[in-house]
Write a structure and sequence with these properties.
Layout lengths: L1 H28 L5 E6 L3 E6 H7 L2 H4 L21 H16 L8 H13 L10 H9 L6 H9 L5 H13 L3 H16 L16 H14 L9 H6 L1 E5 L6 E6 L3 H19 L2 H16 L7 H7 L4 H15 L6 H11 L6 E7 L7 H11 L2 E6 L10 E3 L5 E3 L1 H8 L4 E6 L2
Helix pairs in contact: 1-8, 4-5, 4-10, 5-9, 6-13, 7-9, 10-12, 12-18, 13-16, 15-16
Amino acid sequence: MNTFGCYKKKQLDSEVCKECNKKIDDQINELDHGKIKIVDPIYGLVEIDDYIKIIIDTCYLQRLRRIKQLGFSYLTFPNATHTRFEHSLGVYYLIYRICENENHAIDNKFKFILKTAAILHDIGHGPFSHFSEELSDLVLGREHSHEKRAGNMISPEWSCLNKTLKKIMSKLGFSDKDQADILKKIPNYISGYSKDSLSLLINGPIDVDKMDYIVRDSYHTGVPFGLGVDLFFICDNIRFDKVKKNGHKQIIFNEKAEAAILNLLYAYATSYQAIHYHHVNIIASEMILKIFNDVDISKISDNDKTSLFWTDDCNFLNRLGMILSKKAQKKQYHEIYKMFLRINNRCLPKRKKQGITDVGKKLDFNERRAEEKKSEIITCSSLTKKVKNVDRIRVVKRDGSLRELLGYVKGIKDRFRKIVWECSF
């Protein structure tokens, strides 16, 4: 019976995949460099290129509709149920606004790279977003960043997404050489490993990813830190100037945008402490990690382990619940199953104490469990975010000279601390 069910599921998946590919092929054949419009709660009416709409319709993007942007934060902030999908649309729109600004003079090839990297930058996320990265380390024995997983979806020639991008580029008139270069650059722009300064727009100290989620997370949680950030003013005051050293462009900002940039970075620091590292979010994540640690992972099939990371939030909890309900028949798994039910019912332990220490290395799960054995208390540790490449944030003065914001940014960085909560499960 199970074999038949599994076979039928694969058969149905295959049929749906064929229908999806046919729909995408039809859309590619009808490409006419047009645009569609959608309404976004943050930006209002936004325009989307028709070829980006095709990418949005792929299963890679559609899965993000079912992955919450802030993981378990909805247990604290009831409206924090927005998804990686709408965030990806927001990141795309900010890049679209930059690319279509006539003052920036970005050529069509790099417009395609930037726009495609923006819409695809989060496709590597697993259930409950960043939580799945540490879970991957515990269950699979390796921690893959979502940027790396995104690259693994884009780069292989057998990937449906790779084939779709090639078809779109051919229709848009890119040569085979340009296509190969673009497919190489997109994952590097997402990961931040590219040497092109333009990649800093996707993954850098002030990138469109941060710009969108700082404002969007504030909007949906009600935590106001990001609501006063003028994103359009920052985007409109980006400049691309040649650097004599290597001839590449670097990203700088007009001096008049300095206050808006500092406001963005301040919101970045404070929102992480208030939202992402709220103790309820951390405790819920820790409980799931503890469940996987206490269950005999070796008895979970490799297929089940891997599939957990390519599903969505709801299916992740459903599959985990099914695994635990079967094991709950054995006495030693009763408490583990009860812990899972407590998460579903938001019956979480209270934090016992909170400490703040200097910035340091985040303890991994096994190190936290070692501390637990010493103190008989579960330690939930989270290292606050650090601003990367702060020395690359510069503004251009009216006389044409450049000035670094390093001194100002360092003052904001000093706010970052290692926050530790202790609670008893």
